[in-house]
């Protein structure tokens, strides 16, 4: 025969457990799943416009998901990954062997997914008559062999030449060193601004400058910010031919030319996850690599990694 006091005690405990469980389920912090939870993502700041669109769309679809994007220089994003300050990052390069070794020691295998093809754009002042450069001339500028626009082109009356990047430790500066000047040091006439907006403003106010910027900031013509930036500067066309190159061999960083590979200053965009299980970071990575995320890249002027870009040829 069951003691009534014990029975009441058992019922009380069971009721408390139900209330606690219900309270947890109704918490403001949802469980961490591929479509719910709260995570911080470190993102290379040269991709802020496109990643703002990706984050906004993802959160609009999944109302219990909260992404906290932190836009930083490439060097700072890498440090966040290595220090475990974030477990999801968006970068323009894969991890290097020494960086992978850090995760090997932690028994973690980073998941790296290529999500788009991007490009680095060269921009100049509106008053600069030189908007066409060969790759060889670009190499001479960034290696310090050419230090004046007047030396680059006899018809150019602009003296001096200043190189400006978006930030210290930026991915665009690293790209120039890795892919254009074979890991040489940048010349003494190289400077860094505090932001992409400051970079564009500086170029628009100084005739002798050449700016280096991620094409994402000027590629989406439906974005009022990109349109406003384009009104302030000129975008340089680049040719792989030797100087003097034929006029039709110069290409600007338009989507079709990036897709075809005719614009030479291309780079890839990756999302890297070090999550130990399938959480919100993995869900966001899957979204970006999937149909909806790839269409957002397509609309922004970048080249999706998994969706073909339609190139139409017109006959005269």
Automatic annotation (TrEMBL):
Q: Which residues form the PBP domain?
A: 29-291
Cite the entry's keywords alphabetically.
Signal
Q: What are the transmembrane regions?
A: none
Q: Does the keyword Cytoplasm apply?
A: no
Look up the coiled coil feature and give its residue ranges.
Answer: none
Q: What's the protein called, per UniProt?
A: Phosphate ABC transporter substrate-binding protein, PhoT family
